Amino acid sequence: METRNNPNPSSGDDAEIVSRRIQRLSLHLNPIPCPLPDADRQIGMAACARAKLEVDTGKLSGYMRGPHRDVQEKVFEYFESRPELQTPLEISKNDHRELCWRQLVGLVREAGIKPFRYVADDPAKYFAILEAVGSVDMSLGIKMGVQYSLWGGSVINLGTQKHKDKYFDGIDNLYYPGCFAMTELHHGSNVQALQTAATFDPITDEFIINTPNDGAIKWWIGNAAVHGKFATVFARLMLPTHDSKAVSDMGVHAFIVPIRHLETHETLPGIEIHDCGQKVGLNGVDNGALRFNSVRIPRDNLLNRFGDVSRDGKYSSSLPTVNKRFAATLGELVGGRVGLAYSSVAVLKLAGTIAIRYSLLRQQFGPPRKPEVSILDYQSHQHKLMPMLASTYAFHFATSYLVEKYAEMKRTHDEQLVGDVHALSAGLKAYVTSYTARSLNVCRESCGGHGYAAVNRFGTLRNDHDIFQTFEGDNTVLLQQVAGDLLKRYQEKFQGGPLTVTWNYLRESMNSYLSQPNPVTARWESEDHLRDPKFQLDAFRYRTSRLLQSVAVRLRKHTKTLGGFGAWNRCLNHLLTLAESHIETVILAKFIEAVQNCPDPSARSALKLVCDLYALNRIWNDIGTYRNVDYVAPNKAKAIHKLAEYLSFQVRNIARELVDAFDLPDNVTKAPIAMQSEAYSQYTNYVGF
Ligand SMILES: Cc1cc2nc3c(=O)[nH]c(=O)nc-3n(C[C@H](O)[C@H](O)[C@H](O)COP(=O)(O)OP(=O)(O)OC[C@H]3O[C@@H](n4cnc5c(N)ncnc54)[C@H](O)[C@@H]3O)c2cc1C
């Protein structure tokens, strides 16, 4: 209250201010006493007596850092050296679009960072660039993704050598800015029902691209409203039948359609382009709508890797059915999802760092006649932020694994890996982006009023990231793909089919996890047992296996009366829970592996602590499920809860080191409330005192 009434706190005695600051800083540098009341100390008592973990941030950071830090630093250095390319807080939609384009051109042509070559050859490097670029401005990350991953990726992944030869350099250097035109006004998730038509004209050897009705207008297309010169258009391939009186629908294929003149930038004849207008976020990206009125393109513009048309109008494909061709086409586009999952973790790191650094500094209330305490010392605040920090670490390792598997899949084209990466990218993209979207609200709220100042970034992060939940596949739809995949593998298990690495726990599941829970282990509640990775992983796997088995039984039962579609819908929530449970199981398994593989003992101890918090917090959140089947006895449930709270407190004591290990450079300090010291003076400077 005193400070509140004092209009100029800096006018006090300097020595007193310095001593108060030192006192405050010492509060978050030193661990505070164990918060557990005496009666609760059976759990964690030994650990409670332990001093704060010593964490070597450099070593931890070195372990977390991918192999492509150099190129990320180049990105940061470039934008730091070009202040005129930094996005100001207040900017109109049109100016933001132009700035975003100049940022991308600067990155590619001036800084010489050319992401396109890595899309196919070194995806991990491509995603590292994407992460760095996205933290400069998320619109720039998405603009880059549209150009290289969507437009460029469709050309190199769905086309053949002739397309690479013709388009690679133009895409690479940004002389051929392009779009990925899949979504239509009436069809977003249901891509197989797209209506845009590409009819082959055997006389002129061309395809005629047509929008048959308003519902088929291509909508939300990135790069279309202003900058795009080409579009990969997804359309139904129509071939005249032998008597030329009718056409056969060969299903959805991809075609390169020029939309603006290369030199004049005029919209080409037969094409109508409209602007999708101001959006909730990502206004640096120019989303537009496209209509085609009998636009003619050469036959060569069909991206013909999975299906081709000969000069005389004959269709050929190495894949026997429309469904198989469609699956192969979409399968080549999973890179976008991998990128979104990976970038979403970067957003979570950024928001968590800002919120945690601020919460360490901010003080409100305290014991009578004692200094006020840091808000992160409140149990409720730890409960909001520490499990989130643990999840961020967990997601970091899971998405790094995904990137690794994706790169391996691109290298080997191994069929099993293709299926694995498809389901894993769908699941992680859905799970991580939904989690980050929820967490951005928590971070804003945990910084109180200052979290609401635009300069502190939560507003932009939240608005820009929100759509990650929808594009590149709506999360609810993607989770259903994961559930579908699990059911398929469950059936294969009974037929003795192979199970790939990510799924092989299902093989054991039927034998051990689904037997009745062991009444003896259900009562074990020692700290050692609860922190044993075997107990934690078993608990996750048990839950997934039960969900899988029970939903399979329910589906079988309902299919008899409701048919396949109706039965699926009747069990939909169950299926979504199953998919999330499976993804959490994969995430935990990868986290445990990362802890075990960490070579530095101090970094390993810190990771182990964080991993235990992740696991026990998740088990506690689902404790009803475990109690219902007596997987854990009542006292064990209580012990899990207490230990999770205690671990949260332990993680709080090393929270600063844990966020420092994310190694986020100046882009974090752009938020004045996240400054590590002298936060308030930075903040007051910002508002002009
Ligand atoms: C900013 C932005 C940029 C975009 N960029 C591009 C681009 O460059 N190129 C492009 O082609 N597209 C782009 N899109 C489109 C985007 O990919 C689609 O919006 C997305 O695929 C979802 O489709 P939809 O909007 O039609 O939603 P719908 O499919 O209509 O979904 C609406 C709601 O219904 C639910 N739902 C739908 N089906 C089911 C189901 N089977 N079970 C349960 N629930 C269901 C969903 O969960 C969702 O909540 C962009 C969109 C935006 C907003």
Briefly say what this structure is.
With 689 residues, this protein is of the alpha+beta class.
Number of strands: 11
Class from secondary-structure proportions = alpha+beta
Q: N- to C-terminal separation?
A: 21 Å
- Unreliable stretches (pLDDT < 50, length at least 5) are 1-12, 22-50
Quote the beta fraction.
5-15%
Helix coverage percent of residues?
55-70%
Number of helices: 26
Largest sheet: 6 strands, mixed
Give the integer mean of the pLDDT values.
Answer: 89
**Shape by Cα distribution:** globular
Cofactors and ligands:
flavin-adenine dinucleotide
The radius of gyration is: 27 Å
Structure description:
Keywords: FAD, Fatty acid metabolism, Flavoprotein, Lipid metabolism, Oxidoreductase, Peroxisome, Transit peptide. InterPro entries: ACOX_C_alpha1, Acyl-CoA_Oxase/DH_mid-dom, Acyl-CoA_Oxase/DH_mid-dom_sf, Acyl-CoA_oxidase, Acyl-CoA_oxidase_C, AcylCo_DH-like_C, AcylCoA_DH/oxidase_NM_dom_sf. This is Acyl-coenzyme A oxidase. By secondary structure, the protein is of the alpha+beta class. The chain is 57% helix and 9% strand. The protein has 26 helices and eleven strands. The strands form three sheets. Strands 1, 2, 3, 5, 6 and 9 form a six-stranded mixed β-sheet that branches. It has a three-stranded antiparallel β-sheet with strand order 4-8-7, with no helix packed on it. The radius of gyration is 27 Å and the shape is globular. It binds flavin-adenine dinucleotide. Flavin-adenine dinucleotide (FAD) binds next to strand 1, strand 4 and helix 16.
